[in-house]
Fold each of these.
Amino acid sequence: MTPKYLLKRLGQAILTFLVTMTVSFLLYQAMPGGPTEAMRSVILSQSGGSVDIDRLNRMIQLYTNVNPDQPMHVQYFNYASDVILRQDLGTSFFKNEKVTTLIMQRIPWSMFISVYALALGYSLSIFLGVMTAYREKSRFDSTVSSLIIGLNSIPYYIVGVVLIYFLAIQNNYFPTGGRIGSGIAAGYNPEFMLSLVKHAALPAISMGALATSGALAMRGNAIRVLGEDYIRVAQLRGLRETRIATQYLGHNSILPMYTQFMIGIAGVFSSAVIVEEVFAYPGMGLLMFEAVKTQDYPLLMGTLLVFTAISLTAIFIADLTYTLIDPRISVGEE
Amino acid sequence: MSETHSDSFDLKDLYDEDIDPDPESRADRAKRFLEMNVVAPARIAVADWRALVGGAILAFFLLMGSVGVWLVERPTSGDAPVLAAPFESLAYPLGTDVFGQPIHAQLIHATPGMFKMIFAGAVVSVGFAALVGVVAGFEHGTRIDSFLMTVTDVVITIPGLPLIIVITAIFQPENPYIVGVFLGIDNWPGLARTVRSQVLSIREESYVEASEIMGIPLSSILRRDILSQLMPYVMINGALTSRRIIFESVGLYFLGILPFTTFNWGVMMNLAYEGNALTRPDMLPWMVAPMVCIFLLSFGLVLLSQGLDSLFNVRLRARHAKTSKKKGTSKNNQSQATGGD
C-alpha cells in the first residue's frame, strides 16, 4: 500500500466534494429570477407577512447560508466555510430543523439497504459472470446470460414494482412499504430484527438488480482469462475445479472490473431516491424526494452534498481494499 | 491540407488515395464498397439474431412515434368508458385509464417525446465523451490530458441521479430535448475513459506509428486511423447510453419530479401507482402497458448494442464478405458466427 496512491485518491475525493459544493452554490445563484425571487414565495408562504426585501434576504441567509445581499465571492466564501468548517447545511424551510439533523436521522436506513444491495448485486454478478464463463456455451450459460440481459433491460424501480406486486400484494411474504412494522418495540428482540429485515429486503433486492449489470462484463473478462496459460497449467496440475474457478479465474477477472464496480457504488447509492419512494422507505432518498415536492431548497442541496460525501467515502474505502486484492498496486506503479 | 513539406507530399498522397497496383474500374470499386459496407454487415446481421431483433424492436417504436402519431388520435379525457378492460374493443385494445383515455393512444403519443429525449441525451453524452476521450488520448501525458481526466473522474464519482434531480427541480425543463441534455450530464464520463484508453492503444499500433513517421498530418491520422477504429465503440455505447437515458427520464417522470406536460410512460406509471393500481386489478393494464414498453425498448437497445458488437467485428466481417475469395465456405462461416459469440 503506497501512501502516494492513497493520497492521490484522497485528493481526488476532496476535489470532487468541493466541485459538488460549488455546483450547489451556483445552482442557488442560477435559480430562475435569482435566489431572492425564487425563494420569496416559498419563504413567505411559510412565515407570512411583510415583503421587506432586507428581511427576506436575512431569512434566506438563515435558511440557506447564502446571503443574496453580499457580493458573489463573499457569498461563496461564507457558504463554503459553513459547509466545510461548521458542517452546517442550512435549515429546512418546512420542518424548521437543521438540515444536518434531518439527514442524520435518515442516513442509517439508507446505508442499510444500499450496503446490502451492493453486496448482493456485486457478489451475484461476480459469481454468475465466472460461472457462465467457466461453462461457456452450455445451456446454463445461455439461460443465465439471457436472463441477465433481460434483467438489465428492466429499470430497477420497475423490478421493485414487480416485486411489490408478486411478493407483497399477491402473496403476503413481505410488507409493501415502510421500514418497520407498526407496534413493534425497537431493541434487540427477534420480532424487531425480523421486521427490519423484511422491510429492507425488497428495496435492497431491487437496488441490487442495478448492480448486476456488471455480470456480462465479468463473463467477458473471465472468458479472456480462461485463455491464459496459467489456467491451462492449473488444469494440467489437476487442481480441483472449484479452486481454479475461484482462485485463478475469479480473482484475476475481478481486477479489471474493480474500477467499474467502484464507479457503480455512486449509481447504486443514488438509486435510493427512486427506490425509497416506490417502497415508501423513509431513508435519505425519500427525504430528498419530499424536498423536491415542497421546493425545500436547503434540504435539497443538503441531501445532494451528503449523497456525494457518502459515495466518495464508499469509493475511497473500496480503493483501500483494492490494494489488498491487487498486489501490483503496492509496488508503486500506476 | 497544406503541402508545405515537399518530401512528405508523395507519401501522403499514396496513403490517402489508396492506390492499387492495378487500378480497378469505377463499377468494381462501387461493387466492392457495397460488398464491404452493406452486404457483409447485412449478412452478419441476419446471422446474428440479436442485431436483427434489436433493430426490429427499435424500428417498431420509431414507426409508433412517427406514423402511429398520425394514425391514432391524441387521447383526451372521456374518449371512452372509464377503466375498460383490455382486449375487448378494437377502439381501445389495451383498455382505458381512470379518465377514459385509451391506453394504447397514450403509449403512442408518448413515443416522440421519448425519442427526442434519447436523441438529445445520446448525442450530447456520446459526442462529449468522444471529444474528451480523443483529445485526452492524443495529448497523453500533457497537462490537457490530466486536466480532462481529472474532470472526468470528478463527474464519474458525483452521484448522478441526485444531481440531475436537483437541476430539474430548479429549472423544471418541459422541452424533451432539454430534459435529454440534462440527463446526458452524468452519462459521458465512463465512455470518455473508454475512448481515451482505446485511442491510447490504437496509437501504439504499428500502422499509426508508421503514419506518424511518414509525416502524415495529424488530421488525416485522426480521421483514417483512429476515428474509424473508434466508431464501433461509440455506436455500441450510444445504444447503452440511450438505455440509461430511458431509465432515468422515465424514473424522474415516475417520481413526478419532471413537470407533467406531455404524455410519457413514466407519467402514466406515476398516475397509476399513485392511484394504487397494484391493488386494483381493473387499473393494472394502465401500469403494466408502459412498463412493457420500457422493457421492450431497452431490451431492443441492449440487443442492438450486442449485435453491433459483432457487426463491427472486423474478422467476422471479413469472413462474411465475398471479397475474401472463399465463396464455398460462406454457409459454414455463418454457423460459426452464430455459435462463436
Amino acid sequence: MSQNRLLAILLSVLAVLVLVVGGLSAILLLSGGDDDNGGTASSGGGGTTTETGGGGGNLAEPSSGRIRLASSDPITLDPHLAGDATSAEYIVEIFGGLLTLDQDLNIVPDLAESFEVSADGLTYTFTLREDAVFHDGRSVTAEDVAYSLNRAASRELSSPTALAYLGDIVGMREYFFGLADSIPGIQVVDDRTIQLTIDAPKPYFLAKLTYPTAFVVDRQQVESNRNWTRRPNGTGPYKLTEWRLGERLVLEANQSYHLGQPSLREAVYLLSGGSALTRWENDELDVAPISVNDIDRARDPNSDLGPYYEAFPQFTISYLAFNVNQPPFDDPHVRRALGMSIDRERIANVTFDGMLQKATGILMPGMPGFVDDDLSLPFDPEAARAELAQSQYADNMPVIQITEVGAGAEASVDMQAFIEQWREHLGVEVQVRQSDFASFLSAQDQQQLQAFSAAWIMDYPDPEDVIDLLHHSGSQLNATGYSNPEFDALVEQARVEQDPTTRLDLYRQAEVVLLEDAPWVPLYFGVSHVVVKDQVQGWFEPPMVVPRLRYITVNR
Amino acid sequence: MAMTATQEVYVDESSVGESAWRQVWGRLRRKKLAMISLLIVVAIYLGGIFAPLIAPYGYNTQDLDRGLEGPSADHWLGTDRLGRDMLSRTLYSARTTVVVTTAVVLSGSLFIGTTLGLIAGYRGGWVDNLIMRVGDIFAGLPAIIMLILINASLGRRVEDAARWVEDHTFLDGLVSSGFHSYLLVFGALSLFFWVGSARVIRAQVLQLRENDFILAAESLGGSSARVIRSHILPNVSFLIVLGISASLGGIAGSEILLTWFGVGVQNAPSFGGMIYEGSGARTFQSHPHLLLVPGAVVTALLFAFNLFGDALNDAMRGR
Amino acid sequence: MGAYVIRRLAWLPLILFIVSFATFALARFGPGDPVTVAAGQIRDPEVLAQIRQDKGLDDPIPVQYARWLGDAVRGDFGESFIQRGFTVSELIFPKMWVSAQLGFLALVMIFVVGIPLGLLAARLAGTWVDPAIIGTLLFLQAIPVLVLIPPLLWLFALQFNILPVGGWDGIFEIWWIAGVIAVPIPDPHLYLPLLAFTLPGFVGVARLVRISALEVNTLDYVRTARAKGLSEANVQWRHVFPNSLLPVITVFGLALSGIIEGALFIEVLLGIPGIGSFLFEAVTSRDYDVIMAATVIFATAFVLTNLLAEIIYGLVDPRVRLGASRN
C-alpha cells in the first residue's frame, strides 16, 4: 500500500463526491430556476394587485397584525379539485363563490348580492354584487360564474368532487360524462345575473354552493398559465403572496374585499417542523393544537398552558359501521348488542383523556336539527346480553372482523378497549384488521367490509349530508348496505320539504329509526383543543371549514 | 441493516466433524461476553416460547382504571394506556419475534440460501450464473423499502387467499390467528435474506470442489446428492451457522420496522407495535416506560445477536 | 478493472428495469388507488371509474408500465396525485437535495468521529478504554432508530429546549455580527438527524481502524521507526495513522447504504422533508408516480453505492481481484 496508491484512491473518491455534489447542485439550480420564473410572473401580478388594493383600502383603516399558524401543504389550491379539509381551509380564504358561510354557519351572500327561488323550488336566480372583483381588480361577471361551474364539471379537469356538490344542477351529470356539450341548468341572463336550475326542489342545494367546488376562478389566468394554482387570482378575503412547498405559505389581506376589509393583515402558515406545541412555547406560533399527552396540563388553569387553552366542538363524528348484508350483522339484534355493550363515555375518558365527546346521536351539537337528548343506544350490558340471546347467532357467532385505518401491529387503543368489553359483556370475540387509507376506502366503497371504524366530517351544515347521504338505500356512499323503507321514505320527504321546521323534524325521526336499527354505532363527536397566544383576539375553530381569518385581530 | 454484507470465513479444512464443533464450543465458552450474549438471547427466546406459562396476565387483559401506571408490585414493568401488563405484553412480543426469526432463518437463510448456494457452487455453469445474478439483483435493492411495498400491496390479497382456504377446506382460524400476515412477513423477508448465505456457501463449495477427496469421490461414481451430503455439507456447516447468526439481528430488526410501519404481523403483540405506541417525544416525556420497556428488550436482543455473532466468528476462525 | 466497472454498470439498467417494473406492478396490484384517495369523503363510483378510464388506470399493467417507462426515459416522471399541479420532478429534486446534504454530512461525520475513536481504541489496547469504546459503539449500533429518536427528541428538544423538535431549514444559518459580517453556522435542525444517522454507524469504522492500526503497529517499519527513537506521537502520526486509514474506505459502502435505508424512518420521525418521508407519504396514499420515482432513485443510489464500494475495495486490497471468480 504505497503512498501513491493512497493518493490515487483518495483522489478518485474525491472526484466521485465532486461529481455527485456538482450534479445535485446543478439539479438544484435548475429547479430553483423554475421557482424564480414562477416568482417573477406572479410578482408582476402581485404588483397590479397592490395598486388596486391600495385604491380600495383608503376607505377604512388598513388591516394590521400577523398570525403564525402551523399547517401543511394544501393538496391543491384548485377549488374545483379539492376534496380535503386542509386544502379547503386555504381555498375558502383565497376564493369565493355565490354564497358563503358566516362565523355561525349561516348561509350568506358572497359574490351574489341577492337571490330568488322560483315557486316550484327549482330555479335559483342570483344577482351579482357590483363591487365584486378578483384580486387583480377585474370585475366578476355572470360569465365568470358560469365558466367556473362549467369548468368544475368538465371532462378535462376530471374533478372527483364536482358532481357530489353540483350534480343537482340540470344537465351537469350528462356534461361530466361527455353525453352533452353544455349544461342547460346554468343560464347567464345578463352581466350580473345567473340562473341555476336543479332537478328537484332541494333546500340543501344552497348549502352545497358554499363548498369550494362552486367557487369562482379567473378564466384568463386558468387558461393562460398551467401553474396558476401556485399564485391563484381569487375573489376571497385573502391573497396568496408566497408559497414555498413544505416551508411556508403566506396569505395577505385583500384590502378591497367586498364583504368588508379584513382586520388581520397577514397569516403565515409554517408547513413543516416538529411538535406545534413546543414551537408555540418557543413563541414561534400563535396557535397550536393540544394532543392527548398535554391535555391534562392544558386543562389545569394553574399550568403554563392553562390560561391560553380553549376547546371548540367540531362537526365530526366517529362511528362503528356494520355491513347489514354480512353475517352476523344481517341480524339487528347483534348490531344492537354490540352497540349496547360498550361504555363509550368511559372509553373516551380513558383512551382520549376526555378530548372527545361521547356521541349522543348522529347530528352534532350546533347542527341544524340537533336535539339535546341522548338518542344513541345506552350502555347496558344486561340488555345487550338479552339482545344477543334473541339473535339467530346467539350460539354460533361467525368470525367478526372490524377494519380500521391505522398502522402498528394492533388496533387503535379505543378499539382494543371495545374488544375487551365485547369479550367481557357478551363473550364475543372480535378481531381488528388494520388497513392503509387507500385500501380502506376502496374496500369501503365496494361494501366489502364486514364492519369498520371510520369518521365523517360534515361538508355543509345540513342533516342531509350525513343522515341521507350515508344511509339511504340508494346512496352510493351507503357502505353498510342499510336499507329500511320507513327510513328511506322519511329522508326522501325531507329532501324536498320546503318548510325548515318540518324538514328538520323529518330528519330527527329518521335519525331515531337509524339509531334503533343500528347499522352505525356513533362513538364520539370531535373537539378541537388549542392554545392561543394573548395577542390574538377572536380566534375560533369553526365546527367545519369556513373563512375565518378576516374576523381575527392580532396586536403585533 | 447490513443485510447484504458478506463475510469471508476461513475454515481449517481438517477441522470438520464433531470434534471441530467441540473445539469451537470450547473456545466460545472461554469468551465471557459471548456467554453473556448467549444467555440474553436464550432468556428472551425462552421467555417468548413459554410466554403463556410465565406471563402474569393475558396480553390483552385490560384494567381501564389502572392505565399508564409505572412499575409496581402488581405490574413489574407498569401498564399501558388500557391498563394491560407491560411485562406480559413484552413476553408475548418476544414470542412473535421468536416465530418470525425462526421461520425466516429456516426458510430463507437455511433452506433457500443453503440449497441455492450448494447448487450454484456444485453445478456451476449457467445455473451458477443465473442464481448468482438473481442474488445480485436482490442484494442491489433497498430491502426495507421493497419489503414495505410488498407487504402493503399483497397484504389484503394474501388475507383473501387465506379466507378462501378456510372456506374451501377444513382448516379454520387462519385469518383469526394472523397466520396470513406471518406468512407474508416470512415470505417477504426470506426473499431478501437468502443472498448472503448463498454467496458464502457457493464460494466455499467452489473451493472444495478442487479438493482431492471430492474429486476422488466423484470419480468413484458417487451420485451428486451423495457427494454433497457426505462430503460438501459437513464442510460448509460452519458457514451455515455463521450465516444464520449474522442474519438473525437483521431479521428481528426488519420485522420490527415492518410492524412499526403497519405492514407487519397482525393480531399479535409485537415489539414494533409496542414501540409504535410508545414513540413520540411527548409520550416519552409523560410515560417513558411505554418505549423503554420494549426498546430495552429489543436493544438487548440485537446487541446480544451482534456480540455473539462476532464471538462465533472468532471461535470458528480458531481465535 | 475498467472492464469490470463497465460490466457492473451495464447491470444498472437491468436492475432498474426490474425494480421499476416490480414496484409498478406491486403498487398497482394493491387495493385502493390515488383517485379514490384524492376524491375525499364524497365518492361517486361512476365518477371515479370515469376518471380512472381517462387517466388510463384501467389498462393492463404492462401497457401502463410501458407508458410510464416511455415517459420516464424522456425525463417525465408524471404528476403527483397528492400535490396537484406539480410534476414529480419538481417535487422530488428539492427533497433529494435535502436528503443528499444530510446523507453526505452523516457520512463524513461517521468517518470524522469513527476514525479517531478507532485509533484511540488501538492506542489504548489492553486497557479498559479499548473494550469500553468498542462496546459502547456496538451498543449504539444495536438500538433501533425507532427507539433512539424519541428519547433524543425528549432530551434535547423538550428537556433542555436547545434543539428544534424536527423539521429542516437548510444546512447553514447566518449569524449577523453587528448587522454587517455574515457568519454561517450549522443550522440547529441538523443535529438530531445527524445523531440518528451516525450513532449506529460509528462502530463499523472504528472497529476496522482499530484492527488495522493494531496490525500496522506490529509491522517492521513501525518497529524500526520506534527503534530509531522517534517519539511515540511521531510514530503514530507519521506511520500508524496513514497506513491504518486505508482499509477504512472499504466500509464506505456499508455506511452509505445504512444511511440510505435509515433515511426512510429518520426523516419520517423527525419531519424532515427529504425523499424518505416523501416516499412514506406516497406509499400510504398510493401516489403511483411518486412511489415510482422515489423507489427508482433509492435503488439507483443503492446500486451505485454498492458498486462504488466494490471498486474501492478492489483498489485498496489487491488480494481481491475483481471479477476473478466470475467465469
Amino acid sequence: METSVDKELSPARVKTGAGFSSKKTPDTVSTNKRLKRSHRQIRAENIFRRTIMIVAVATVVLVVGIMITLAWQSRLSIQSAGLGFLWGKVWDPVRDIFGVYPFLLGTLLTSFLALIISVPFSFAVALFLGEYFPKGWMPDLLKNLVELIAAVPSVIYGFWGLAVLVPIVRSFETAIGVNAVGLGIFSSSLILAIMIIPYAASLGRSMIQMVPANLKEAAYSLGATRWEVIRMVILPYTKSGLFAGVMLSLGRALGETMAVTMVIGNTSLIPKNIFSPGNTMASVIANEFTEADHPVYLSALIELGLVLFVVTVVINMIGKRLIKGVSK
Amino acid sequence: MKIVKNLAFAALAVAISGSMMLTSCAGGNNPKGADSTAKAGTEEDNTILGAGATFPNPLYSKMFSEYNKTTGLKVNYQSIGSGGGIQQLTSKTVDFGASDAPLNGKQDSAMSAPAVHIPITAGAVVLSYNLPDVKDTLNLSPDVLAKIFLGEIKKWNDPKIAAINKGVKLPSLDIQVAHRSDGSGTSNIFTTYLSKVSKDWDAKVGKGSSVNWPVGLGGKGNEGVAGSVKQTPGCIGYIELAYAIQNGMAYARMQNKAGNFITPSIASITAAANITIPADAKVSLTNTEAADGYPISGLTWILVYKEQKYNNHSAERATKMLKMVQWMVHEGQQYCAPLNYAPLSANAISVADAQLKTVTFDGKPVLQ
Amino acid sequence: MSVAIKYRIGKSTAFKTLVIVLSLACVVPLLFILVYILQAGITKINWNFLTNLPKPVGESGGGIANALVGTMIIVGTASIIAIPFGILCGIYLSENKNSKLAYWSRLCIDILQGIPSIVIGIVAYFWLVKPLNSFSSLSGSMALAIMMLPIVVRSTEETLLLLPDSLREAAYALGMPFHRVILKVIVPCGISGIMSGVMLSVARITGETAPLLFTAFGNPYLTTDITKPMQSLPLLIFNYATSPYNDWHDLAWGASCILLIWVLLLNIFTKLITRKWKVQL
C-alpha cells in the first residue's frame, strides 16, 4: 500500500524536499553517502506527511460513509412512508404501518424531563466549582466525583435503575395514585438526569472561570452581593456557554440507549403521562433491530437511526458552535 | 493547476483510505483464517451458530451443553426471539434459526431459498402473575384473558375475574400487562389463541409475532417478560412454562374449549399435541379439542435451509449441524420432561425425520 | 443596616446555601450506585466465577470467563485499530491548523463524537456483519473503534498544541526531518496527554453495550477467533439483568462490579496523569 503511494506521488514531491535535493545532486562522490541518507529521509518525510493526510481524509470518508449507509439502507422506508413516518401514530410491523410519533414523543419527553431535573444540579456544581470554591481539596474531590458520573457505563446505570430505582418509583407512584408500574418514562428520565449532570457542569465551570475578574470586582465595588454578581455579571456573560453545556447534555440524553431500554417499559403506545411506559427511538432500535423479519421493517428501523443521527448531530453542532463562539 | 492537483490528490487519498478500510477488514480475517486452518478441527468448524426463539431456550441450552459433552461440538445459541431467528437466517448470518411460529408468506418470500421446519418439542404458554397476597391458583377463561390484554379489565377484583374464581380473595390492584417487545413466536402462539377465541381481539389486534399491543409493558424475550412479572406487583404476562417453574412464579389454570380449567403440565400439553402432524410440520396446537388439553400450547421448530450449499458453508459443517438436530429429535428428547417441555410424539418424530432427510448439500441428501 | 441590605445579603447567603446543597446532592446518587454495586458484586466474585463458563439456563453456578476474555479481545482489537489512526489524525490536525482539510476533518470528528452508539452499531452491522455473513467480534471492535476515535484525536491534537513552538523549532534547526521531529520529539513530550486520552477512550468503550448487540452478538463458549461471535461483559450484564433468574442476577452483579472497578481505575489513573496537562476533554 505505502510503496504505491510513494511511487505515485514522489515525482510531485513537495517544495521542501524537491528543491533541496536537485541543487545538491551534481556534487562530489564523497557526499554521496550523506546525500543518499537525506534522500531517504526526505522520502520518509513525504510518506509520513501523506499518511497523516490520508488519515485525516479517512475521518471525513468515515463520516460520509456512515451517512450514506444510513440513507441508502433506509431508502425503502423513505419511499413507502415519506415524511408521514415522523407523525404516524401507529407502529405496527405486522401490518407494515410504521409511524414513529410515539417514539419521538418518548424520546423528547425523557430527554427534556431529564434536562429539567439535571440543569439546576449541573449549574449548582458549575457555580460551586467555578465561583464559590475554585480551589482546595474539597472542590477538587467534588469535581472528580462529578466527572466519574460520566464514566460509569450506562448498562450499569440501567441495572441499578432496574434493581433499586424502579421499586422506589413504584412506591412513589402508588402513593400518588397513578398506574404503579415503576418502569416508564419517569424512571428513565431520573436515570438520564443523573447521567447527564457532568456534561453541563464541567463546561459551565470553565465558562464561569473565564469571566474577567475586573468585571466582577467592578460590581463588588458598587456594593453588589455575591448573588447579584452572579445574576447581573456572571450569568449574562456566560449565557451562551451555559446554553452550550445544556445542548451537549441534551445530545447525550437523546442518544442514550441501554439505561433507557432497561427501565422505560418498551411499549409502542403513545405515552399518556410521564409515568406511563414508553419507548425512545434508541430503545426501539435496540429491541427490534436483530429481529426485523422483512425488508421494509428493517429499513424503517434504520430510518429511525437516521433521524436520531441527524437530530443528535445538529444539537451537538449547535453546542460546539456556541462553545467556539465563546472561547474566541 | 493547483486545484486540479489538489483534486487528484484528494481522489487518490479517498481511494486509498477506502481500500485501507477494506483491507483492514480482510487483513483482520487473513491471519486468523490461516490460523484456523492450522487448528481447523478444534476451533473453526466446531462451532455452530444458531439464533431465535427464547421459548425453548432453557431446553436448548441444556441439550447443547449435553451435546457438547458427548461430541465436543460447540453450539452458540442466542435467544434473541423467533423474529430475530428468522431474520438472521434470512440474511444468512447464522447456521440455523429457531422459531415457535412457522414462516408466514411474507417471511417465506423474503428468504432466498426454501427452509424446512423441524419440530423439536412442544411447550405451554402460561399466564404468570404476581399477586403476593393470593395463595390460590387463579382460573382464567378465554374471554377474561382477551379483555385483560385488550385493557378492558383493569382491576384484579373485577367481577368477571371474581366470577370464575369463587372463594379467592382478589386485591383491588391495577392489572399490569407484560408482553414481548421483540418479534416472538411465543407472542405468535398467544395471539393466535386469542384471535381464535375472541372476535374482538381478532378485529382490533390480530395475530403475529410482533403485534401492536393495546396495553402493557414490553420485555425482551421470555426472560424479559418473566423479569417484569416477577418484579412488578399486579403484573400478568405470558411466558413459557419452564420459565415460570424455574423461577417459582405463579401461573393460572386456563379454561379450554371443552370448558375445563386446565393446569399447564407435560400431560396436558401432550394431550393438546396429540394430533396428526402434517408433512411440512407447520401446525398450530392452540385451542385444542382435547378435553384435558392445555389450550395455549405450541410446537417449536428449528429452521434450516433445504439446500445447505450457500456462501462458504462446507459439507462437513452441514453434516455436523444436521446430526446435531437429529440428536435433538431423538436422544435429546430425554431432557424435555425434566424441564417441563412435552417430548415429541412418535408421529411428530417421524415427520421430523422425514423433513431432515429432505435437506441436501449440492443436491445430495446430507443424512442417509 | 437597613432592611433592604439585610434582605439582599440574606438572599445571597440563601443562594450560596442552595448551590452547596445541590452540588453535594449530585454526588449522593453516584456514591449510592458505587457502594450498592460494589456491595452486591464483590461477594459474587470468586475463582469459579472468573474461570468457569456459564451453565445452561436455570442451572445454578457457572462463571463469566467467556465474557472476560471476550471483552479483552474486543476492546484490544478496537484499540489496535483506533489508537494509531487517532494519534496520526491528531498530529495532522495540530500540524495543519488552518488547512481546509483540517477544518472538515475536525468537523467530522465533532460529528463522530455526537453519533449515538446504537447508530454506530447499525452501521457496523452493514459494513462488516452483512458482507462477511457472520456476526463477529471484529465488527464489534470496529464499532467501538469508531467511538474511540474522537477522544483519541481530540486529546492528541490539544496536547500537541500545548507544546511550545520553540521545541519544534529547536528540532528543525538541528536538521531533523519532519517525521522524526514529530515522532521523536513532539509525541514523546506529549505522550502523557495522549495516553490519558487513550485510557479515557478505552474506559468509555469497555462499558459500551449498544453497538455490540448487533455485532459481537454473544457466545456461551470461550473463543479467541475474532471472526466469530463473542460474549462481552456489558452484553452479559444487559441480558442477565433483565432476566428472571436469580443466579443470572448474581452473575450480572459480579460482572458489573468488575466492569465498574476497571473503568474507575482507568479514570483515576487518567486523572493522575492529566494533572500535569491541563487538557480539556
